[in-house]
């Protein structure tokens, strides 16, 4: 998953109706393909989903979903002027949400509140304060 911050807001997507967990809000990201590093996956998925060129910065955290999918949470940078252009097959819309907006959002994949909780408890650090 890519954790992308701009002006203390998180880049969050609404999943399209054509993918698993349709309509849910989550961080952009996707599955690793054979032979890829996690950084390469991050760069490819952000180009595919949002047409943005990201620069992976560092691994923030790892978690596992109740259905056994392993998630790697990467901090990533994008150029200041770059605007996401979603592929509607994968991403219905995107938002820049503040920490509080993200906390209060409905329709989140359960991994997102877990990530926020880990941040609040100091299990991972971000370039902004809780
Ligand atoms: N993108 C994304 N996926 C998440 C998050 N939290 C979470 O549990 N997931 C799960 C849902 C899926 O099981 C898996 C990634 O799904 P995906 O649908 O985005 O990836 P993908 O394009 O490679 O599709 P798939 O074939 O792996 O389902 O991770 C999150 O914040 N963002």
UniProtKB/TrEMBL annotation:
Its cofactor is Mg(2+). Residues 1-122 form the Nudix hydrolase domain. Coiled coil: none annotated. This is 8-oxo-dGTP diphosphatase. The keyword Signal does not apply. Belongs to the Nudix hydrolase family. It catalyses: 8-oxo-GTP + H2O = 8-oxo-GMP + diphosphate + H(+); 8-oxo-dGTP + H2O = 8-oxo-dGMP + diphosphate + H(+). SUPFAM superfamilies: Nudix. One of its GO terms (biological process) is DNA repair. Its EC number is 3.6.1.55. Keywords: DNA damage, DNA repair, DNA replication, Hydrolase, Magnesium, Metal-binding, Mutator protein. GO terms for molecular function: 8-oxo-7,8-dihydrodeoxyguanosine triphosphate pyrophosphatase activity; 8-oxo-7,8-dihydroguanosine triphosphate pyrophosphatase activity; 8-oxo-dGDP phosphatase activity; 8-oxo-GDP phosphatase activity; metal ion binding. It is an enzyme of class 3 (hydrolase).
């Amino acid at each position: 998953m890519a954790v992308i911050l701009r002006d203390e807001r998180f880049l969050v997507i609404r999943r399209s109706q054509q993918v698993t967990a349709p309509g849910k809000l989550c961080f952009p990201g996707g599955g690793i393909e054979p032979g890829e590093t996690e950084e390469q996956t991050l760069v490819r998925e952000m180009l595919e989903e949002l047409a943005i060129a990201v620069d992976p910065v560092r691994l923030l955290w790892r978690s596992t979903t109740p259905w056994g999918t392993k998630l790697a949470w990467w901090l990533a940078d994008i150029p200041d002027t770059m605007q996401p252009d979603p592929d509607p097959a994968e991403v219905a819309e995107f938002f820049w949400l503040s920490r509080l907006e993200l906390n209060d959002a409905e329709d989140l994949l359960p991994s997102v509140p877990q990530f926020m909780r880990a941040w609040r408890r100091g299990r991972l650090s971000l370039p902004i304060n809780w």
